[in-house]
Amino acid sequence: MHALATIAAIFTLPGFTAVAAEPSGGRLLEGTFPGTARPGYVYLPPRFDPALRYPVVYLLHGMPGSPSEYPGGTSLGTFADASIAGGTLRPFIGVMPAAGTSPRYNGEWAGEWETAVVDRVLPWVDESLPTIAAPTGRVIAGLSAGGYGAFDIALRHPRLFGAVESWSGYFTPLHDGPFKHAPDSTLAANDPTLLARQEAARLRVAGVRFFVSTGPAHSHWIARGTSLKFAGELRRLGLRTTFRTYPDRAGEWREQLEAGLKWALPA
User: Which pLDDT tens digit goes with each residue over 17-36?
Assistant: First the structure.
């Protein structure tokens, strides 16, 4: 036990510094990922051992917003540490990049920020950390606009992720950020409903799993029933889909994250 703790303590990630020690020995590191413009976070689990291989959960924040939504707003580290230590959740690496050049960015996880995740962040993570560098070892998830981004990115790159999650997200591109003056062809190419239909056969063969959940309405841009309707569409396409709803506003983001992680990575 002492040797493992020592290994975890001396492990360094280029450009990142430890900013928090989690309750059961996990660590939160802060730094700026390649291709992004502001700091994000990496979560390392209790008893982290660089000689092992870990699944990675990519967590996309809402808009406007910041990666701090996860360690702060959802208490990611506290939940993950306790669940991993208690044997109910697989040890995993959490990756929380940032979109936009400031917390005021109110666009989408698309355009240059999609490129950053796919072409810069993901390869760097696999090169710098002991990951399971395959779809079976990758989960992408997000809350609100991050949920849209998770599905848009995963469906546009169907060979990258084995599990995709949206927590109170939406599934139609909004006319903001890179889509503000985009032609209909660009909007269609970033529409998760259309993408799911186009890629359904490939996704079924690959066994990609989908988790869609929702809490009370939190934005006038997201129509009531959006998540339920989209989950129904995925099921009609024969895709492996779990849908859950959380009626209480208090703690809804934390509850959705906890349920989503348990669904994706049960011990």
Answer: 999 999 899 999 999 999 99
- pLDDT tens for 135-194 read 999 999 999 999 999 999 999 999 999 999 999 999 999 988 899 999 999 999 999 999
Largest interatomic CA distance in the chain: 58
pTM of structure: 0.94
Q: What is the C-alpha end-to-end distance of the chain, expressed in Å?
A: 20
Long-range contacts of 1-7 (CB under 8 A, 24+ apart): 1/47, 4/47, 4/48, 4/49, 5/47, 7/48, 7/49, 7/50
